[in-house]
Design goal:
alpha/beta, five-stranded mixed sheet, RNA-binding, six-stranded mixed sheet
Length: 402
RNA sequence: GGGUCGGUGGCAGAGCGGUCAAUUGCAUCAGACUGUAAAUCUGACGACUUCGGUCUACGGCGGUUCAAAUCCGUCCCGGCCCA
């Protein structure tokens, strides 16, 4: 690849706007990339979650871009750091996980992101490392040595800690160790670039400091913006009800994207698809944001489940929710003669208790072949219900069979 | 070590002897509406129920009382201040 082509590709990545913070500077990072040297990138992930979400996906897609440019990419599983829990989020101590649990989670992740990150490339696959490999070997003396590179005041600068101090909420000693550990990861792997979300910059900076002190090397930090609603600034997260996990099947993934607020369309299109910027602009001009969202949902589903599934999921969504038709294929659940409807709804997994099932019926959320039912004492009999479609709420369908 | 405040439903956080299965917000669920599973509005939101109730729950254990999330004792856990 000649110089011009390289420059164009590098700028394409940088101009997309996903990366918003560069340390020491964007200019220096760009020059480093243009120098043509093979660099070692890494990103870390906490293995406590069973599924990755679209925020991870965004960051991994950027790394894949760098991998395609010939750089080395390490996907670090923070199995050791995961034992502490990143103080960035509110929870403090976490449950210690066994290696087997960590590996089980990771193999699920790998399955979720195998279409955006190439683990199988013959020449330059994405490498996987576990930080217990080195962190687990440090002894107390090593830890003291590491800790002596930082002051309590430096740690307290972290906005999170500062906030907790002001609010009189606890900060545990071991939480101070988190940035140290994450920092040591950089040293142990001898990386050139760490990628993270903007909420992780503090931790990444600890690594930069350690790299300078221990290896006399200038590590770059590139930070991606967190996916947030353009209008309200609300982050995509589970507690806001907008988190989208990658282990969803095609239909549910499609639906989860359709239920995003409109302000999320553009950030998601930029961060989580490969649609070109100019095409995204066109999409944003569409009169009905729903159509832009349909396209977005299709593009994202396509990445994880393929084109065919994406088409099906779109059709399913339109039929089921826009036109309120029945889906083509409905799962079946066996009923027994004389079984209570309430009981059946619970067994089908549409309510967690009979009380909840009762409530759904009372609120008009349950229907049989389109006929709302109102009798909570309804029982199922073969001659009346065999083969009928039970609908609970908007999205749950099941065929009653005997 | 001393003092002091606190531990409540998925989370945050009220209640401080009966009217408490416990106000409210977030999350969740159902309905209406819509451009969508957006937004907004309405309702629900411990379990079981013959729909009258029954049971289990406000850190653990024990007590006072006709009656305790609420009072007392004790234990466990935590915050803050002082040392």
């Amino acid at each position: 690849m000649d110089k011009k082509e390289l420059e164009q590709k590098v700028d394409e990545i940088l101009d997309r706007g996903i990366l918003v913070e560069f340390l020491p500077t964007k200019e220096e990072f760009r020059n480093k990339l243009l120098a043509g040297e093979k660099l070692r990138f890494y990103i870390g992930a906490d293995p406590t979650a069973k599924a990755l979400h679209l925020g991870h996906a965004q960051n991994l897609m950027v790394l894949e871009d760098f991998r395609r440019l010939g750089h080395e990419v390490i996907f670090l599983i923070g199995d050791f750091t995961g034992m502490i829990g990143d103080p960035s989020d509110k929870s403090s101590a976490r449950v210690k996980q066994t290696r087997a649990e960590v590996e089980a989670n990771f193999s699920a992740w790998k399955d979720q992101v195998k279409n955006i990150l190439d683990f199988e490339d013959k020449e330059n696959p994405v490498l996987i490392k576990y930080n217990s490999e080195w962190l687990g070997k440090l002894n107390f003396g090593d830890v003291l040595e590491l800790a002596s590179n930082f002051t309590v005041q430096q740690m307290l600068e972290r906005d999170m800690f500062e906030k907790r101090m002001n609010e009189g909420r606890p900060i545990y000693i071991h939480e101070f160790m988190y940035p140290l550990m994450q920092g040591y990861d950089s040293v142990a792997m001898d990386v050139d670039v760490e990628m993270c979300g903007t909420d992780q910059i503090f931790n990444a900076l600890a690594g930069r400091t350690l790299m300078q002190k221990m290896k006399n090397k200038d590590k770059f930090i590139i930070a991606a913006k967190l996916i947030a609603d353009e209008k309200t600034g609300m982050l995509m997260s589970k507690s806001n009800g907008t988190g989208v996990f990658l282990d969803l099947d095609a239909n549910n993934l499609f639906g989860a994207i359709m239920s995003q607020p409109d302000g999320m369309i553009k950030p998601l299109a930029i961060g989580c698809t490969r649609i070109s910027l100019s095409e995204i602009e066109k999409l944003m001009q569409l009169e009905n944001p729903r159509d832009a969202k349909l396209k977005l949902a299709w593009e994202i589903v396509k990445i994880y489940h393929g084109k065919e599934r994406a088409d099906e999921a779109r059709e399913y969504f339109i039929n089921t929710f826009s036109k309120k038709e029945l889906p083509d294929e409905v799962a079946e659940e066996k009923a027994t003669e004389g079984e209570e409807m309430l009981n059946f709804i619970v067994r089908a997994g549409f309510a967690s208790s009979k009380g909840e099932a009762r409530r759904k019926i009372e609120q008009g959320g349950v229907s049989i072949d389109g006929q709302k039912i109102s009798d909570i004492k309804q029982t199922l009999t073969k001659d009346l219900f065999n083969g009928k479609i039970l609908k609970v709420g908007k999205k749950n369908f099941i065929k009653i069979v005997f």
